[in-house]
Amino acid sequence: MPGCRPNTFRGGGCYFGPDITERILRKHNLELLVRSHECKCEGYEYVHGRKVITIFSASNYYEQGSNRGAYMKIGPDMKPYFVQYQVSKTKKHLTLKQRVGIVEQSAVKELRERLYANKTSLMIAFLEKDKGKTGYISGSQWSSAVESVLKLDVPWNMIRHQLNGPSITETLYRNRSNLETIFRLMDKDNSGVVSMDEFEECCRLLNEHTNSNIPLDSIEDLAKSIDMDKDGNIDFNEFLEAFRLVDYSKTGLKSSKTSMEIPSPVNSIHIIS
Protein backbone atom coordinates (compact mmCIF):
# COMPACT_ATOMS: atom_id res chain seq x y z
CA MET A 1 0.00 0.00 0.00
CA PRO A 2 1.21 3.56 -0.67
CA GLY A 3 2.54 5.73 2.12
CA CYS A 4 4.38 5.09 5.36
CA ARG A 5 2.90 4.22 8.75
CA PRO A 6 4.15 2.82 12.08
CA ASN A 7 4.23 -0.95 12.54
CA THR A 8 2.14 -1.12 15.71
CA PHE A 9 1.91 -4.91 15.44
CA ARG A 10 5.63 -5.31 16.22
CA GLY A 11 5.86 -2.13 18.25
CA GLY A 12 8.72 -0.74 16.13
CA GLY A 13 9.70 0.07 12.55
CA CYS A 14 7.23 1.01 9.84
CA TYR A 15 5.34 -0.19 6.79
CA PHE A 16 6.26 1.58 3.57
CA GLY A 17 4.74 1.39 0.09
CA PRO A 18 6.11 1.46 -3.48
CA ASP A 19 5.86 5.26 -3.63
CA ILE A 20 8.23 5.56 -0.66
CA THR A 21 10.64 3.07 -2.25
CA GLU A 22 10.64 5.05 -5.50
CA ARG A 23 11.28 8.32 -3.68
CA ILE A 24 14.23 6.93 -1.67
CA LEU A 25 15.88 5.26 -4.67
CA ARG A 26 15.52 8.39 -6.78
CA LYS A 27 16.83 10.66 -3.98
CA HIS A 28 20.01 8.59 -3.49
CA ASN A 29 20.45 7.52 -7.14
CA LEU A 30 20.02 3.81 -6.36
CA GLU A 31 18.51 0.94 -8.34
CA LEU A 32 17.65 -1.58 -5.65
CA LEU A 33 16.77 -1.67 -1.94
CA VAL A 34 17.73 -4.83 -0.04
CA ARG A 35 16.22 -5.44 3.37
CA SER A 36 16.07 -8.36 5.80
CA HIS A 37 14.63 -9.70 9.05
CA GLU A 38 11.27 -10.86 7.72
CA CYS A 39 10.65 -14.55 7.14
CA LYS A 40 9.96 -15.56 3.53
CA CYS A 41 8.97 -19.08 2.50
CA GLU A 42 11.54 -19.20 -0.31
CA GLY A 43 14.23 -17.33 1.65
CA TYR A 44 13.83 -14.18 -0.45
CA GLU A 45 11.14 -12.13 -2.15
CA TYR A 46 10.86 -9.29 -4.66
CA VAL A 47 8.23 -6.54 -4.12
CA HIS A 48 7.51 -2.99 -5.32
CA GLY A 49 8.07 -3.75 -8.99
CA ARG A 50 11.23 -5.79 -8.23
CA LYS A 51 12.86 -2.73 -6.67
CA VAL A 52 12.86 -4.14 -3.13
CA ILE A 53 14.31 -7.51 -2.11
CA THR A 54 13.71 -9.10 1.27
CA ILE A 55 16.40 -11.66 2.11
CA PHE A 56 16.07 -14.07 5.05
CA SER A 57 18.86 -16.48 5.92
CA ALA A 58 17.31 -18.59 8.70
CA SER A 59 15.65 -21.73 7.35
CA ASN A 60 13.09 -23.57 9.52
CA TYR A 61 12.34 -20.29 11.31
CA TYR A 62 8.94 -21.36 12.69
CA GLU A 63 9.09 -25.14 12.47
CA GLN A 64 11.09 -27.81 10.64
CA GLY A 65 10.29 -27.34 6.94
CA SER A 66 8.46 -24.02 7.38
CA ASN A 67 10.75 -21.99 5.11
CA ARG A 68 13.98 -22.03 3.17
CA GLY A 69 16.89 -19.76 3.95
CA ALA A 70 18.76 -17.82 1.29
CA TYR A 71 21.65 -15.45 0.70
CA MET A 72 22.26 -13.10 -2.19
CA LYS A 73 25.32 -12.68 -4.40
CA ILE A 74 25.92 -9.80 -6.81
CA GLY A 75 28.05 -10.68 -9.84
CA PRO A 76 30.03 -8.50 -12.25
CA ASP A 77 26.84 -7.78 -14.20
CA MET A 78 25.44 -6.14 -11.03
CA LYS A 79 22.48 -8.53 -10.99
CA PRO A 80 21.49 -10.34 -7.80
CA TYR A 81 21.71 -14.14 -7.61
CA PHE A 82 20.19 -16.18 -4.81
CA VAL A 83 21.40 -19.34 -3.11
CA GLN A 84 18.62 -21.18 -1.25
CA TYR A 85 19.03 -23.90 1.33
CA GLN A 86 17.10 -25.95 3.86
CA VAL A 87 18.81 -27.27 6.98
CA SER A 88 16.82 -30.50 6.95
CA LYS A 89 17.25 -33.38 4.51
CA THR A 90 13.76 -34.73 5.17
CA LYS A 91 11.96 -31.40 4.69
CA LYS A 92 13.88 -29.73 1.87
CA HIS A 93 11.61 -31.10 -0.89
CA LEU A 94 8.34 -29.79 0.54
CA THR A 95 6.18 -27.75 -1.82
CA LEU A 96 5.45 -24.09 -1.15
CA LYS A 97 1.90 -24.98 -0.11
CA GLN A 98 3.21 -27.52 2.41
CA ARG A 99 5.69 -25.01 3.87
CA VAL A 100 2.98 -22.36 4.18
CA GLY A 101 0.80 -24.94 5.92
CA ILE A 102 3.53 -25.62 8.49
CA VAL A 103 3.86 -21.89 9.20
CA GLU A 104 0.08 -21.56 9.59
CA GLN A 105 -0.10 -24.54 11.95
CA SER A 106 2.65 -23.04 14.09
CA ALA A 107 0.89 -19.67 14.18
CA VAL A 108 -2.49 -21.21 15.10
CA LYS A 109 -0.83 -23.22 17.88
CA GLU A 110 0.69 -20.07 19.36
CA LEU A 111 -2.63 -18.21 19.12
CA ARG A 112 -4.41 -21.05 20.94
CA GLU A 113 -1.86 -20.83 23.74
CA ARG A 114 -2.34 -17.06 23.97
CA LEU A 115 -6.11 -17.47 24.14
CA TYR A 116 -5.80 -19.94 26.99
CA ALA A 117 -3.25 -17.81 28.86
CA ASN A 118 -5.66 -14.84 28.73
CA LYS A 119 -8.83 -16.82 29.39
CA THR A 120 -9.99 -14.77 32.39
CA SER A 121 -9.55 -11.41 30.66
CA LEU A 122 -11.24 -12.77 27.54
CA MET A 123 -14.25 -13.98 29.48
CA ILE A 124 -14.67 -10.54 31.04
CA ALA A 125 -14.57 -9.01 27.55
CA PHE A 126 -17.10 -11.58 26.26
CA LEU A 127 -19.48 -10.86 29.13
CA GLU A 128 -19.26 -7.14 28.39
CA LYS A 129 -20.33 -7.85 24.79
CA ASP A 130 -23.26 -9.94 26.00
CA LYS A 131 -25.37 -6.99 27.13
CA GLY A 132 -28.55 -9.03 27.41
CA LYS A 133 -26.85 -11.78 29.45
CA THR A 134 -28.06 -14.38 26.96
CA GLY A 135 -24.92 -16.50 27.09
CA TYR A 136 -24.40 -15.93 23.36
CA ILE A 137 -22.30 -13.49 21.32
CA SER A 138 -21.86 -13.14 17.57
CA GLY A 139 -18.69 -14.06 15.70
CA SER A 140 -17.89 -10.40 15.09
CA GLN A 141 -18.35 -9.60 18.81
CA TRP A 142 -16.02 -12.50 19.67
CA SER A 143 -13.39 -11.23 17.23
CA SER A 144 -13.65 -7.68 18.57
CA ALA A 145 -13.29 -8.86 22.17
CA VAL A 146 -10.27 -11.05 21.39
CA GLU A 147 -8.53 -8.25 19.52
CA SER A 148 -9.14 -5.81 22.39
CA VAL A 149 -7.58 -8.20 24.91
CA LEU A 150 -4.67 -9.68 22.94
CA LYS A 151 -3.80 -6.49 20.99
CA LEU A 152 -2.89 -8.53 17.91
CA ASP A 153 -3.75 -7.38 14.41
CA VAL A 154 -5.00 -10.78 13.23
CA PRO A 155 -8.05 -11.64 11.04
CA TRP A 156 -9.74 -13.34 13.99
CA ASN A 157 -13.08 -13.86 12.24
CA MET A 158 -11.40 -15.78 9.41
CA ILE A 159 -9.38 -18.11 11.63
CA ARG A 160 -11.86 -18.51 14.47
CA HIS A 161 -12.89 -22.03 13.43
CA GLN A 162 -9.24 -23.16 13.26
CA LEU A 163 -8.81 -22.12 16.89
CA ASN A 164 -11.69 -24.25 18.13
CA GLY A 165 -10.28 -27.73 18.51
CA PRO A 166 -8.79 -30.39 20.75
CA SER A 167 -5.42 -28.64 21.11
CA ILE A 168 -6.71 -26.33 23.85
CA THR A 169 -8.25 -29.30 25.63
CA GLU A 170 -4.95 -31.15 25.35
CA THR A 171 -3.19 -28.14 26.86
CA LEU A 172 -5.55 -28.26 29.80
CA TYR A 173 -5.00 -31.94 30.37
CA ARG A 174 -1.24 -31.56 30.09
CA ASN A 175 -1.69 -29.45 33.23
CA ARG A 176 -3.58 -32.21 35.00
CA SER A 177 -0.95 -32.42 37.77
CA ASN A 178 -1.34 -28.70 38.52
CA LEU A 179 -5.11 -29.04 38.64
CA GLU A 180 -4.74 -32.02 40.96
CA THR A 181 -2.57 -29.95 43.31
CA ILE A 182 -5.20 -27.19 43.37
CA PHE A 183 -7.91 -29.77 44.03
CA ARG A 184 -5.99 -31.19 47.00
CA LEU A 185 -5.49 -27.72 48.44
CA MET A 186 -9.25 -27.17 48.26
CA ASP A 187 -9.91 -30.55 49.87
CA LYS A 188 -8.90 -29.44 53.38
CA ASP A 189 -10.19 -32.52 55.22
CA ASN A 190 -8.56 -34.93 52.72
CA SER A 191 -11.88 -36.62 52.06
CA GLY A 192 -11.23 -37.02 48.34
CA VAL A 193 -14.00 -34.58 47.44
CA VAL A 194 -14.38 -30.83 47.78
CA SER A 195 -17.47 -29.67 49.64
CA MET A 196 -19.41 -26.59 48.57
CA ASP A 197 -18.10 -24.74 51.62
CA GLU A 198 -14.47 -25.71 50.89
CA PHE A 199 -14.78 -24.62 47.28
CA GLU A 200 -16.43 -21.30 48.11
CA GLU A 201 -13.92 -20.54 50.88
CA CYS A 202 -10.99 -21.19 48.52
CA CYS A 203 -12.51 -18.93 45.84
CA ARG A 204 -13.08 -16.18 48.38
CA LEU A 205 -9.43 -16.39 49.41
CA LEU A 206 -8.38 -16.20 45.77
CA ASN A 207 -10.64 -13.18 45.38
CA GLU A 208 -8.86 -11.42 48.25
CA HIS A 209 -5.30 -12.28 47.25
CA THR A 210 -5.66 -11.63 43.51
CA ASN A 211 -7.84 -8.51 43.83
CA SER A 212 -10.49 -10.21 41.71
CA ASN A 213 -14.07 -9.01 41.76
CA ILE A 214 -15.96 -12.26 41.25
CA PRO A 215 -19.31 -11.84 43.07
CA LEU A 216 -19.95 -14.31 45.89
CA ASP A 217 -23.25 -15.44 44.35
CA SER A 218 -21.35 -16.23 41.14
CA ILE A 219 -18.94 -18.38 43.15
CA GLU A 220 -21.88 -20.27 44.64
CA ASP A 221 -23.43 -20.74 41.20
CA LEU A 222 -20.09 -21.97 39.86
CA ALA A 223 -19.76 -24.52 42.67
CA LYS A 224 -23.25 -25.83 41.97
CA SER A 225 -22.61 -26.05 38.22
CA ILE A 226 -19.40 -28.05 38.74
CA ASP A 227 -21.27 -30.48 41.02
CA MET A 228 -22.75 -32.35 38.07
CA ASP A 229 -24.29 -35.26 39.98
CA LYS A 230 -25.75 -32.80 42.53
CA ASP A 231 -24.54 -34.77 45.55
CA GLY A 232 -23.30 -31.65 47.33
CA ASN A 233 -19.60 -32.36 46.68
CA ILE A 234 -17.14 -31.87 43.80
CA ASP A 235 -15.02 -34.89 42.95
CA PHE A 236 -11.81 -34.70 40.89
CA ASN A 237 -13.46 -35.75 37.62
CA GLU A 238 -16.09 -33.04 37.99
CA PHE A 239 -13.33 -30.55 38.78
CA LEU A 240 -11.42 -31.50 35.61
CA GLU A 241 -14.59 -31.40 33.54
CA ALA A 242 -15.14 -27.79 34.59
CA PHE A 243 -11.89 -26.85 32.84
CA ARG A 244 -12.60 -28.75 29.66
CA LEU A 245 -13.49 -26.98 26.41
CA VAL A 246 -16.50 -28.44 24.71
CA ASP A 247 -17.27 -28.38 20.99
CA TYR A 248 -21.01 -28.00 20.65
CA SER A 249 -21.07 -28.44 16.87
CA LYS A 250 -22.27 -32.05 17.29
CA THR A 251 -25.16 -31.23 19.64
CA GLY A 252 -28.66 -30.45 18.50
CA LEU A 253 -27.84 -27.06 17.01
CA LYS A 254 -29.02 -26.14 13.53
CA SER A 255 -26.52 -26.88 10.79
CA SER A 256 -26.24 -23.20 9.86
CA LYS A 257 -24.74 -22.38 13.22
CA THR A 258 -21.67 -23.46 15.14
CA SER A 259 -21.34 -22.93 18.88
CA MET A 260 -18.13 -22.88 20.92
CA GLU A 261 -18.08 -22.75 24.71
CA ILE A 262 -15.28 -21.19 26.72
CA PRO A 263 -15.32 -22.14 30.43
CA SER A 264 -15.06 -19.33 32.90
CA PRO A 265 -14.79 -18.67 36.65
CA VAL A 266 -18.09 -16.83 36.23
CA ASN A 267 -20.11 -18.11 33.31
CA SER A 268 -19.99 -19.59 29.82
CA ILE A 269 -20.24 -17.73 26.54
CA HIS A 270 -21.25 -19.33 23.23
CA ILE A 271 -20.02 -17.88 19.94
CA ILE A 272 -22.61 -18.09 17.18
CA SER A 273 -21.66 -17.90 13.49
UniProtKB/TrEMBL annotation:
Keyword list, A-Z: Calcium, Manganese, Metal-binding
Gene3D superfamilies, per database record: 3.60.21.10, EF-hand
Keyword Calcium among record annotations: yes
Protein name: Serine/threonine-protein phosphatase with EF-hands 2
Highest taxon of source: Eukaryota
Needed co-factor(s): Mn(2+)
CDD domains in the record: EFh (cd00051)
InterPro entries noted in UniProt: EF-hand-dom_pair, EF_Hand_1_Ca_BS, EF_hand_dom, Metallo-depent_PP-like, PPP_phosphatase, Ser/Thr-sp_prot-phosphatase
Chain ranges passing through the membrane: none
GO molecular function, one term: calcium ion binding
Domain annotation EF-hand: ranges: 174-209, 214-249
Pfam family of the protein (one): EF-hand_7
Organism field: Acropora cervicornis
